[in-house]
Amino acid sequence: MKRREFLSFAVGAAIGLPLAANAQSGRVRRIGLMANLPLRPIERFRDRMKQLGYVEGQNLVVEYRFAEGRDELYTGFAEELVSMPVELIVAWGTPAAFAAKRATSKIPVVITVGDVINTGLVSNLARPDANITGFVALNVELEEKRLELIKEIVPHLSKVAVLGNRANPLNKINSEAVRRVAERLSVSIEVVNIVRSDEVEAALGAIASVHPDAVIIASDTLLLSERARITKFMADNGIPAVYPFREYADAGGFIFYGANIATLFERAADYVHRILNGESPQNLPIQQATSFEMIINLKAAAKLGLTLPPAVLARADEVVE
Fold first, then answer.
1. The whole model's pTM is what?
2. Is 202 a residue whose pLDDT tops 60?
3. Crossing angle of helices 73-83/94-103, nearest 10°?
4. What is the pLDDT of residues 149-166, one digit of tens each?
5. Cβ pair 111, 132 in contact under 8 A
6. For residues 188 and 159, is the Cβ–Cβ distance under 8 A?
């Protein structure tokens, strides 16, 4: 669903709510959802909520807040949702999760993020802190594997650039993990950071100036909002890049390897259902991703002049011809 269609649906659902609510005896639930964009995982969340009996415009109102590449908006979004108040907040990404954590210690928060312990979001996976629970995509471990993967693919790999977001606490941790692996693999790392989406163009130029053999795109939803620009730049400049979200592959990116975020959002819907039915977030352990995907674009590989090793192709879940 396109963003305009998605927001039209949300507004229409809210307008139609009073009539729908009067037509049924059940309680109307109101939750908030903060993310960068209304991408596929949000659709899967909505589908799963519907399977669980929650129909937007009838017994469910979802207050959607999309930052669209402006992470600084999350603080205001979270405060607005708390003041309504909503019964629960769903947050995708570390910046959104921290904004929700700062805004409330009482309203339950269900998060989908790359890491929780190292970033300080929570101190215990088995018994989460206070009002926060959810799912972890294991991005620190995956960042290491992405470097190992690109080392397999690119002959004589010696220099890798990492495009990250300095304002995202997860990216600092991920960069440290990549540097540890790079030392073992005898690869030098050049980190180029942005803070705002309007800095992406300059950051891409900085990457080109260091002439890397490959690029790792950090696990960050602000960067994800710039995926069309990033994937086009890499293709136009003949730079192999490994990406952390499936949406980069949909935009023509060379290779994606990461957790299945859509599956995590389906599981998040189950947690939302349980919390709305009285369970405490503290009794719902933070769960780690168990489903991972690799998508390889052979057309992009050919344009880059790369021949994929059979062992890498054999591990791919999807190969785009």
1. 0.88
2. yes
3. 40
4. 999 999 899 999 999 999
5. yes
6. yes
Backbone region of residue 238 per phi and psi (left: phi > 0; alpha: psi in -120 to 50; beta: other values):
left
3-136+260-290: CATH topology is Rossmann fold (3.40.50)
pLDDT tens-digit readout, 87-137: 999 999 999 999 999 999 999 999 999 999 999 999 999 988 889 999 999
CB atoms within 10 A of CB 126: 6
Non-local CB neighbours of 48 within 8 Å, separated by 6+ positions: 265, 266, 269, 270
**Which residues face 90 on adjacent strands?**
33, 110
Question: Are 3-136+260-290 and 139-259+293-320 in the same CATH fold?
Answer: yes
Cα–Cα distance for residue pair 202/73, rounded to 1 Å: 22
- The structure tokens 């349980």 sit at 274
What is the spatial distance between Cα 127 and Cα 122, in angstroms, rounded to a whole number?
9
Q: Of 126, 242, 116, 133, give the one whose Cα is nearest residue 178.
A: 242
Which of 165, 159, 167, 166 is CA-nearest to residue 209? 159
* Domain range list for the chain: 3-136+260-290, 139-259+293-320
* CATH of span 139-259+293-320: 3.40.50.2300
Give the separation between CA 65 and CA 276, rounded to whole angstroms: 20
